[in-house]
Amino acid sequence: MFDLQALALQGDITRVITFQLARETSNRTYPELGIDEPHHPLTHHGNDPDKMAKVATINRFHVSLFAEFLEKLAAIPEGSGNLLEHSLYLYGSGMGNPNVHDHVNLPILVAGGAAGKMRGGRHLRYAQPTPLANLHLTLLDRVGVRLDAFADSNGLVGELFEPLSS
Description:
- By secondary structure, this protein is mainly α.
- The protein folds into two domains: 2-115, no CATH class; 119-166, no CATH class.
- It has four helices and four strands, in the order αααββββα.
- The chain has helices spanning 2-10, 39-43, 49-74, 132-142, and strands spanning 77-78, 81-82, 89-92, 108-111.
- A hairpin with a 2-residue loop joins strand 1 (77-78) and strand 2.
- The chain is globular and about 45 Å long.
- The chain starts with a helix and ends in a 24-residue tail after the last helix.
- The model has no long low-confidence stretch (mean pLDDT 90).
């Protein structure tokens, strides 16, 4: 599916893609990783170190697929740069600790250069809980969809882009 996304972007068939790599309630096993237990029950690990290690292995696998995709985009010339430099991807989960179904400290990654408009190479961590919807609202704003709010947002993520439109 990542290859199809790269082809669609390269061929200018689309500029917007939504893709769900794995369902959070999936019972898929990962025998290729040596994990025969279903994914979702493993996420309810009860702080069992063995189960937590298996979940971490599955997460690393998923992130490695995304990393390979980003490498493919970076290898595709586009304009004066490459497709990754001219794209923006949001990757992550709405679940911080799946064992207790919390939605704080979410693993979110924003990749690409947004045609030179995104300041990358940083790890942003907020002192106070910040809704993920703030990031969604910011991304919508950057593509010209002006909204006062989105879901439980309470503002824009001004640190992501410079300068952020008003």
